[in-house]
Write a structure and sequence with these properties.
It holds the Pfam family PadR. This is PadR family transcriptional regulator. InterPro entries: Tscrpt_reg_PadR_N, WH-like_DNA-bd_sf, WH_DNA-bd_sf. This protein is mostly helical and 215 residues long. The protein has 2 domains: 89 residues, Arc Repressor Mutant, subunit A, CATH 1.10.10; 87 residues. It has 10 helices and 3 strands. α7 packs antiparallel against α8.
Length: 215
């Protein structure tokens, strides 16, 4: 997975020589399991895979008391090349945001007007909770003193602010769309109670669509 590879290569590049447990603790503090879907176990697997691919190399393996041995890594020329290429590819490209909500939203008429409105207001409430927590954390963040636990680089702070603005926009959208669901202007009832004639018309339309060429 490119996200795991990029984060590991980037952190090893900055902190080398660095062992896996340090990387695990740092990435866990970033909350990568939530927003990047990177599991703790995949971090160690990723280090081994990057090493096997020649992108990282082992510097040393240390045994302290009865603790598990810790292997330290540094980046190779091949790893540096992959990091630079992936970094620029992901920063310069525009990729669609894949939120499961939008997939399920295609079938929201199944809920009916009242449940759809309740769902949207509940989503808005959950988003407000997240926004409040994030704003609280940002208010305590220090962008200059890296020795403090509250240190947060300015470029990371700006990214979090972008996420907050997106969530605030989603809150407004949910609240406005909930009203439309309730008053009938969203058209949920029309689709929810679609009759046989409408379904046949839909099927005839499907027959006119281009052949996807799937056998």
């Amino acid at each position: 997975m490119w996200t795991t590879r990029l984060m590991l290569l980037g952190l090893v590049r900055w902190l080398q020589p660095v062992h896996g447990y340090e990387l695990l603790r740092e990435l866990t503090s970033w909350g990568v399991e939530d927003w990047a879907k990177v599991k703790p176990g995949s971090i160690y697997h990723g280090l081994k895979k990057l090493t096997a691919d020649g992108c990282l190399e082992v510097v040393a393996t240390e045994q302290v008391d009865n603790r598990p041995a810790r292997t330290s890594y540094k980046i190779t020329a091949k790893g540096e090349a992959e990091f630079q290429e992936t970094l620029r590819a992901k920063l310069w490209e525009l990729a669609p945001i894949q939120d499961p909500f939008f997939i399920a939203w295609s079938f929201v008429p199944v809920l009916g007007r009242r449940e759809a409105a309740a769902m949207l207001r509940n989503r808005a409430a959950m988003l407000r909770d997240v926004v409040a927590k994030q704003e609280g954390l940002l208010s305590l963040a220090s962008p200059t003193d890296f020795t403090r636990d509250s240190f947060l680089p300015t470029h990371v702070k700006r990214a979090l602010e972008l996420g907050l603005e997106a969530m605030k926009l989603s809150i407004r959208w949910c609240e406005e769309t909930a009203v439309e669901a309730e008053n009938g202007t969203l058209g949920i009832d029309d689709i929810h109670h679609m009759g046989p004639d409408a379904i046949e018309h839909w099927k005839r339309h499907i027959a006119t669509l281009p052949d996807p060429g799937v056998s």
